[in-house]
Amino acid sequence: RIRPLSYFGKGHSSDDWDYEGYLTDFRFYDRALSSYNIMELYQGAYSDTTDLFLWYPTTGIDYSTSTWTNYGSGTDATIEDPDTIIDPTVSDVYVRPIWDEIEVYFAQSSDLRTNVDEQEYPYFRLRLKYDNHLLDDGSNDAVWINSSVASWSTAWYKYYTQVSVGSWNFVVTSASEDTYGITALDSASAVSFDEDIIWDEIEVYYGYQHDPREYLGATNWGIFRLRLKYDNHLLNDNANDEVWINTEVASWSGGLFWYDNVVQTTVGSWNYAVTSASEDTYGITAFDSDSAAEYDTDLIWDAIGVHLWIDDARDNIDDTIMVYAWLTYMYDMTNVTDGTVLLNGTGMSYGSNIWSLGRSQSTVGLWSYGITSISGNTHGITVIGYNSFT
Protein backbone atom coordinates (compact mmCIF):
# COMPACT_ATOMS: atom_id res chain seq x y z
CA ARG A 1 0.00 0.00 0.00
CA ILE A 2 1.37 3.41 -1.00
CA ARG A 3 0.56 6.52 0.97
CA PRO A 4 -1.47 9.18 -0.88
CA LEU A 5 1.55 11.53 -0.78
CA SER A 6 4.88 9.81 -1.21
CA TYR A 7 8.34 11.23 -1.74
CA PHE A 8 11.56 9.93 -3.22
CA GLY A 9 14.68 11.53 -1.92
CA LYS A 10 13.06 13.11 1.10
CA GLY A 11 10.98 12.07 4.03
CA HIS A 12 7.60 13.20 5.34
CA SER A 13 9.19 14.79 8.37
CA SER A 14 11.07 18.04 8.10
CA ASP A 15 13.68 16.48 10.33
CA ASP A 16 14.55 13.83 7.72
CA TRP A 17 17.68 14.19 5.62
CA ASP A 18 17.18 14.96 1.94
CA TYR A 19 18.90 12.79 -0.66
CA GLU A 20 21.58 14.75 -2.48
CA GLY A 21 22.19 13.03 -5.76
CA TYR A 22 20.58 12.08 -9.02
CA LEU A 23 18.22 9.16 -9.63
CA THR A 24 18.39 7.76 -13.12
CA ASP A 25 16.04 5.40 -14.88
CA PHE A 26 13.74 4.91 -11.91
CA ARG A 27 10.81 2.57 -12.83
CA PHE A 28 7.75 0.87 -11.38
CA TYR A 29 6.87 -2.47 -12.95
CA ASP A 30 3.70 -4.37 -12.14
CA ARG A 31 5.66 -7.58 -12.35
CA ALA A 32 8.84 -9.13 -11.06
CA LEU A 33 12.05 -8.76 -13.09
CA SER A 34 14.57 -11.57 -13.32
CA SER A 35 18.20 -11.05 -12.30
CA TYR A 36 19.06 -11.21 -15.99
CA ASN A 37 16.51 -8.42 -16.75
CA ILE A 38 18.07 -6.29 -14.02
CA MET A 39 21.52 -6.85 -15.45
CA GLU A 40 20.21 -5.75 -18.86
CA LEU A 41 18.73 -2.64 -17.30
CA TYR A 42 22.06 -1.84 -15.71
CA GLN A 43 23.76 -2.24 -19.07
CA GLY A 44 21.07 -0.17 -20.87
CA ALA A 45 20.02 -3.13 -23.00
CA TYR A 46 16.54 -3.82 -21.59
CA SER A 47 13.68 -2.24 -23.61
CA ASP A 48 10.65 -4.31 -22.59
CA THR A 49 7.98 -1.88 -21.22
CA THR A 50 5.40 -4.55 -20.50
CA ASP A 51 3.65 -3.75 -17.20
CA LEU A 52 5.83 -0.65 -16.81
CA PHE A 53 3.36 1.88 -15.40
CA LEU A 54 5.57 4.63 -13.97
CA TRP A 55 8.99 5.65 -15.31
CA TYR A 56 11.28 8.44 -14.23
CA PRO A 57 13.26 9.28 -17.40
CA THR A 58 17.03 9.82 -17.44
CA THR A 59 17.28 12.85 -19.72
CA GLY A 60 15.47 16.03 -20.61
CA ILE A 61 14.07 16.72 -17.16
CA ASP A 62 12.50 20.05 -16.39
CA TYR A 63 12.52 20.12 -12.63
CA SER A 64 9.56 22.52 -12.46
CA THR A 65 7.15 20.77 -14.83
CA SER A 66 8.37 17.26 -15.56
CA THR A 67 6.18 14.42 -14.43
CA TRP A 68 6.44 10.71 -14.32
CA THR A 69 5.67 9.12 -17.63
CA ASN A 70 2.45 7.18 -17.39
CA TYR A 71 2.84 3.74 -18.92
CA GLY A 72 -0.40 2.26 -17.69
CA SER A 73 -2.93 2.89 -15.02
CA GLY A 74 -0.54 4.91 -12.90
CA THR A 75 -1.19 8.54 -12.06
CA ASP A 76 1.25 11.26 -13.12
CA ALA A 77 3.20 12.75 -10.25
CA THR A 78 4.95 16.09 -9.97
CA ILE A 79 8.76 16.12 -9.74
CA GLU A 80 9.78 18.63 -7.15
CA ASP A 81 12.82 20.83 -7.76
CA PRO A 82 15.51 19.70 -5.27
CA ASP A 83 17.63 22.08 -3.23
CA THR A 84 20.75 21.01 -5.09
CA ILE A 85 20.40 19.99 -8.72
CA ILE A 86 23.03 17.74 -10.22
CA ASP A 87 22.88 18.14 -13.97
CA PRO A 88 23.64 14.78 -15.61
CA THR A 89 24.87 16.50 -18.79
CA VAL A 90 27.82 18.12 -16.99
CA SER A 91 28.39 15.95 -13.98
CA ASP A 92 29.15 12.32 -13.39
CA VAL A 93 26.04 11.11 -11.70
CA TYR A 94 27.54 7.83 -10.61
CA VAL A 95 29.61 7.11 -7.52
CA ARG A 96 32.55 5.18 -8.94
CA PRO A 97 35.13 4.32 -6.31
CA ILE A 98 38.48 2.84 -7.43
CA TRP A 99 40.17 0.10 -5.50
CA ASP A 100 43.84 0.20 -6.32
CA GLU A 101 47.25 -1.07 -5.29
CA ILE A 102 50.91 -0.34 -5.97
CA GLU A 103 52.99 -2.58 -8.21
CA VAL A 104 56.69 -2.82 -8.97
CA TYR A 105 57.24 -2.87 -12.73
CA PHE A 106 60.98 -2.37 -13.14
CA ALA A 107 64.13 -3.42 -11.25
CA GLN A 108 67.83 -3.11 -11.95
CA SER A 109 71.10 -2.56 -10.10
CA SER A 110 74.17 -0.42 -10.61
CA ASP A 111 76.28 -3.59 -10.90
CA LEU A 112 75.37 -7.28 -10.67
CA ARG A 113 78.77 -8.20 -9.19
CA THR A 114 81.07 -5.81 -7.41
CA ASN A 115 84.03 -5.63 -5.04
CA VAL A 116 83.61 -6.17 -1.33
CA ASP A 117 83.58 -2.84 0.51
CA GLU A 118 82.31 -1.04 -2.60
CA GLN A 119 78.98 0.78 -2.67
CA GLU A 120 76.26 -0.36 -5.06
CA TYR A 121 72.54 0.25 -5.31
CA PRO A 122 69.45 -1.58 -6.56
CA TYR A 123 66.76 0.65 -8.06
CA PHE A 124 63.08 0.16 -8.73
CA ARG A 125 60.14 1.88 -10.42
CA LEU A 126 56.59 1.65 -9.07
CA ARG A 127 53.13 2.69 -10.22
CA LEU A 128 49.45 2.36 -9.37
CA LYS A 129 47.92 -0.59 -11.14
CA TYR A 130 44.66 1.10 -12.11
CA ASP A 131 46.01 3.88 -14.34
CA ASN A 132 49.84 3.51 -14.21
CA HIS A 133 50.11 6.60 -12.03
CA LEU A 134 53.84 6.71 -11.18
CA LEU A 135 55.27 6.92 -7.70
CA ASP A 136 57.97 9.56 -7.38
CA ASP A 137 59.14 12.05 -4.81
CA GLY A 138 57.18 14.96 -6.31
CA SER A 139 54.14 14.21 -4.16
CA ASN A 140 55.55 12.83 -0.93
CA ASP A 141 55.43 9.23 -2.13
CA ALA A 142 57.67 6.84 -0.19
CA VAL A 143 59.24 3.45 -0.91
CA TRP A 144 61.06 0.99 1.34
CA ILE A 145 63.72 -1.41 0.02
CA ASN A 146 64.44 -4.29 2.39
CA SER A 147 62.54 -2.29 5.03
CA SER A 148 64.82 0.75 4.63
CA VAL A 149 63.63 4.08 3.24
CA ALA A 150 64.67 4.52 -0.40
CA SER A 151 65.68 7.70 -2.22
CA TRP A 152 64.38 8.99 -5.54
CA SER A 153 66.30 9.93 -8.68
CA THR A 154 64.42 8.78 -11.81
CA ALA A 155 63.92 5.57 -9.81
CA TRP A 156 63.79 4.48 -6.19
CA TYR A 157 67.20 3.37 -4.93
CA LYS A 158 69.27 2.73 -1.83
CA TYR A 159 73.04 2.38 -1.42
CA TYR A 160 74.46 -0.78 0.17
CA THR A 161 77.97 -1.96 1.04
CA GLN A 162 78.99 -5.47 2.08
CA VAL A 163 82.29 -6.42 3.70
CA SER A 164 82.08 -10.15 3.04
CA VAL A 165 81.62 -12.26 -0.08
CA GLY A 166 78.09 -13.33 -0.91
CA SER A 167 74.86 -12.62 -2.80
CA TRP A 168 72.28 -10.27 -1.34
CA ASN A 169 68.66 -10.00 -2.46
CA PHE A 170 66.88 -6.65 -2.59
CA VAL A 171 63.16 -6.15 -2.91
CA VAL A 172 60.56 -3.46 -2.38
CA THR A 173 58.96 -4.33 0.95
CA SER A 174 56.42 -1.50 1.18
CA ALA A 175 55.35 1.74 -0.44
CA SER A 176 53.09 4.71 0.15
CA GLU A 177 51.45 6.74 -2.62
CA ASP A 178 50.50 10.21 -1.43
CA THR A 179 48.07 11.55 -4.08
CA TYR A 180 45.36 8.96 -3.43
CA GLY A 181 46.69 7.52 -0.17
CA ILE A 182 47.37 4.06 -1.62
CA THR A 183 49.58 1.81 0.47
CA ALA A 184 48.52 -1.68 -0.65
CA LEU A 185 51.49 -3.35 -2.38
CA ASP A 186 51.29 -6.18 -4.88
CA SER A 187 53.86 -8.45 -3.24
CA ALA A 188 53.91 -10.77 -6.28
CA SER A 189 55.20 -7.92 -8.45
CA ALA A 190 57.82 -7.11 -5.81
CA VAL A 191 59.06 -10.71 -5.92
CA SER A 192 59.01 -10.72 -9.74
CA PHE A 193 61.11 -7.56 -9.84
CA ASP A 194 63.58 -8.26 -7.05
CA GLU A 195 67.30 -7.74 -7.61
CA ASP A 196 70.41 -9.71 -6.56
CA ILE A 197 73.85 -8.13 -6.12
CA ILE A 198 77.02 -10.15 -5.52
CA TRP A 199 79.92 -8.76 -3.52
CA ASP A 200 83.10 -10.64 -4.41
CA GLU A 201 86.90 -10.65 -4.14
CA ILE A 202 89.89 -12.50 -5.58
CA GLU A 203 91.74 -15.13 -3.59
CA VAL A 204 94.94 -17.11 -4.09
CA TYR A 205 94.18 -20.79 -3.62
CA TYR A 206 97.48 -22.38 -4.70
CA GLY A 207 101.13 -21.37 -4.40
CA TYR A 208 104.29 -23.35 -5.03
CA GLN A 209 107.90 -23.05 -6.20
CA HIS A 210 109.20 -24.19 -9.55
CA ASP A 211 112.36 -25.14 -7.61
CA PRO A 212 112.62 -24.45 -3.88
CA ARG A 213 116.43 -24.05 -4.13
CA GLU A 214 118.26 -22.98 -7.25
CA TYR A 215 121.89 -22.20 -7.97
CA LEU A 216 123.14 -18.65 -8.29
CA GLY A 217 122.29 -17.04 -11.62
CA ALA A 218 119.63 -19.59 -12.50
CA THR A 219 116.06 -18.59 -13.42
CA ASN A 220 113.39 -19.57 -10.93
CA TRP A 221 109.76 -18.69 -10.36
CA GLY A 222 106.87 -19.01 -7.97
CA ILE A 223 103.65 -20.60 -9.21
CA PHE A 224 100.20 -19.27 -8.26
CA ARG A 225 96.55 -19.91 -9.08
CA LEU A 226 93.73 -17.45 -8.35
CA ARG A 227 89.93 -17.43 -8.43
CA LEU A 228 86.89 -15.43 -7.39
CA LYS A 229 85.66 -16.44 -3.97
CA TYR A 230 81.94 -16.39 -4.72
CA ASP A 231 81.81 -19.10 -7.39
CA ASN A 232 85.45 -20.19 -7.94
CA HIS A 233 85.59 -18.42 -11.29
CA LEU A 234 89.25 -18.82 -12.36
CA LEU A 235 91.56 -16.01 -13.34
CA ASN A 236 93.47 -16.66 -16.57
CA ASP A 237 94.61 -14.74 -19.60
CA ASN A 238 91.60 -15.65 -21.74
CA ALA A 239 89.66 -12.65 -20.46
CA ASN A 240 92.36 -10.02 -19.95
CA ASP A 241 92.81 -10.90 -16.30
CA GLU A 242 96.02 -9.65 -14.71
CA VAL A 243 98.13 -10.70 -11.73
CA TRP A 244 101.07 -9.03 -10.04
CA ILE A 245 103.76 -10.96 -8.12
CA ASN A 246 105.89 -8.78 -5.85
CA THR A 247 104.44 -5.80 -7.81
CA GLU A 248 105.72 -7.24 -11.12
CA VAL A 249 103.27 -8.21 -13.86
CA ALA A 250 102.99 -12.00 -13.95
CA SER A 251 102.72 -14.25 -17.00
CA TRP A 252 100.17 -16.98 -17.66
CA SER A 253 101.43 -20.47 -18.41
CA GLY A 254 99.16 -22.17 -20.92
CA GLY A 255 96.14 -22.77 -18.76
CA LEU A 256 98.10 -23.80 -15.68
CA PHE A 257 99.30 -20.97 -13.45
CA TRP A 258 100.59 -17.43 -13.06
CA TYR A 259 104.36 -16.99 -12.70
CA ASP A 260 107.17 -14.44 -12.92
CA ASN A 261 110.73 -15.40 -13.95
CA VAL A 262 113.33 -14.13 -11.49
CA VAL A 263 117.10 -14.43 -11.13
CA GLN A 264 119.28 -13.78 -8.08
CA THR A 265 123.08 -13.56 -8.05
CA THR A 266 123.66 -13.65 -4.30
CA VAL A 267 123.00 -16.43 -1.83
CA GLY A 268 119.77 -15.99 0.11
CA SER A 269 116.04 -16.62 0.40
CA TRP A 270 113.49 -14.40 -1.36
CA ASN A 271 109.78 -14.37 -0.67
CA TYR A 272 107.32 -14.16 -3.54
CA ALA A 273 103.60 -13.53 -3.22
CA VAL A 274 100.70 -12.23 -5.26
CA THR A 275 100.38 -8.55 -4.40
CA SER A 276 97.34 -7.64 -6.50
CA ALA A 277 95.09 -8.91 -9.28
CA SER A 278 92.42 -7.72 -11.69
CA GLU A 279 89.58 -9.93 -12.95
CA ASP A 280 88.13 -8.68 -16.23
CA THR A 281 84.79 -10.50 -16.66
CA TYR A 282 83.12 -8.88 -13.66
CA GLY A 283 85.66 -6.13 -12.99
CA ILE A 284 86.72 -7.50 -9.61
CA THR A 285 89.90 -6.07 -8.13
CA ALA A 286 89.30 -6.56 -4.40
CA PHE A 287 92.00 -8.90 -3.20
CA ASP A 288 92.14 -11.20 -0.18
CA SER A 289 95.62 -10.45 1.16
CA ASP A 290 95.28 -13.18 3.80
CA SER A 291 95.06 -15.81 1.06
CA ALA A 292 98.16 -14.31 -0.58
CA ALA A 293 100.07 -14.61 2.69
CA GLU A 294 98.85 -18.19 3.12
CA TYR A 295 100.05 -19.21 -0.33
CA ASP A 296 103.27 -17.21 -0.59
CA THR A 297 106.45 -19.04 -1.49
CA ASP A 298 110.15 -18.76 -0.62
CA LEU A 299 112.80 -19.25 -3.30
CA ILE A 300 116.43 -19.91 -2.33
CA TRP A 301 119.43 -19.18 -4.48
CA ASP A 302 122.47 -21.11 -3.26
CA ALA A 303 126.08 -22.06 -3.96
CA ILE A 304 128.51 -24.59 -2.52
CA GLY A 305 131.43 -23.64 -0.35
CA VAL A 306 134.54 -25.84 -0.75
CA HIS A 307 137.30 -26.31 1.82
CA LEU A 308 140.25 -28.51 0.69
CA TRP A 309 143.21 -30.00 2.55
CA ILE A 310 145.71 -32.87 2.20
CA ASP A 311 147.05 -35.32 4.76
CA ASP A 312 150.71 -34.77 3.73
CA ALA A 313 152.14 -31.75 1.95
CA ARG A 314 155.20 -33.68 0.63
CA ASP A 315 155.57 -37.42 0.22
CA ASN A 316 157.62 -40.03 -1.57
CA ILE A 317 157.00 -40.65 -5.23
CA ASP A 318 154.49 -43.43 -5.76
CA ASP A 319 153.12 -42.93 -2.25
CA THR A 320 149.45 -41.93 -1.88
CA ILE A 321 148.48 -38.52 -0.63
CA MET A 322 144.85 -38.14 0.46
CA VAL A 323 143.00 -35.04 -0.74
CA TYR A 324 139.99 -34.11 1.41
CA ALA A 325 137.08 -31.74 0.74
CA TRP A 326 134.42 -30.42 3.02
CA LEU A 327 131.45 -29.16 0.99
CA THR A 328 128.60 -27.11 2.43
CA TYR A 329 125.54 -25.33 1.06
CA MET A 330 126.28 -21.67 1.67
CA TYR A 331 122.62 -20.75 2.41
CA ASP A 332 122.29 -22.81 5.58
CA MET A 333 125.81 -24.30 6.01
CA THR A 334 124.53 -27.89 5.79
CA ASN A 335 126.79 -30.56 4.35
CA VAL A 336 126.69 -31.69 0.75
CA THR A 337 126.31 -35.41 1.21
CA ASP A 338 125.32 -36.73 -2.20
CA GLY A 339 125.81 -36.25 -5.90
CA THR A 340 129.04 -36.24 -7.89
CA VAL A 341 132.15 -34.29 -6.91
CA LEU A 342 135.11 -34.30 -9.31
CA LEU A 343 138.65 -33.52 -8.23
CA ASN A 344 140.61 -32.59 -11.33
CA GLY A 345 138.01 -34.61 -13.27
CA THR A 346 138.13 -37.68 -11.01
CA GLY A 347 135.26 -38.60 -8.73
CA MET A 348 135.69 -38.30 -4.98
CA SER A 349 134.10 -40.54 -2.37
CA TYR A 350 131.90 -39.39 0.52
CA GLY A 351 132.03 -40.61 4.10
CA SER A 352 131.70 -39.14 7.57
CA ASN A 353 130.81 -35.70 6.17
CA ILE A 354 134.04 -35.60 4.14
CA TRP A 355 134.76 -36.10 0.44
CA SER A 356 138.13 -37.73 -0.28
CA LEU A 357 140.34 -39.02 -3.05
CA GLY A 358 143.85 -40.60 -2.93
CA ARG A 359 146.43 -39.31 -5.42
CA SER A 360 150.01 -40.53 -6.25
CA GLN A 361 152.67 -39.44 -8.70
CA SER A 362 155.67 -41.38 -10.05
CA THR A 363 157.75 -38.33 -10.88
CA VAL A 364 159.03 -35.51 -8.78
CA GLY A 365 157.01 -32.33 -9.02
CA LEU A 366 154.35 -29.98 -7.67
CA TRP A 367 150.79 -30.79 -8.59
CA SER A 368 147.65 -28.69 -8.07
CA TYR A 369 144.28 -30.21 -7.18
CA GLY A 370 140.85 -28.56 -7.04
CA ILE A 371 137.15 -29.30 -7.35
CA THR A 372 136.33 -29.06 -11.04
CA SER A 373 132.65 -30.08 -11.00
CA ILE A 374 129.75 -30.63 -8.61
CA SER A 375 126.42 -32.10 -9.73
CA GLY A 376 123.53 -34.38 -8.85
CA ASN A 377 123.12 -33.36 -5.22
CA THR A 378 119.82 -33.03 -3.36
CA HIS A 379 119.28 -29.34 -4.22
CA GLY A 380 120.81 -29.45 -7.68
CA ILE A 381 123.41 -26.84 -6.80
CA THR A 382 126.35 -26.80 -9.20
CA VAL A 383 127.91 -23.40 -8.57
CA ILE A 384 130.93 -23.13 -6.31
CA GLY A 385 130.66 -20.05 -4.18
CA TYR A 386 134.17 -20.12 -2.72
CA ASN A 387 137.26 -22.32 -2.35
CA SER A 388 139.50 -22.38 0.70
CA PHE A 389 142.62 -24.42 1.36
CA THR A 390 144.51 -25.65 4.37
UniProtKB/TrEMBL annotation:
InterPro entries: ConA-like_dom_sf. Gene3D superfamilies: 2.60.120.200. This is DUF2341 domain-containing protein.
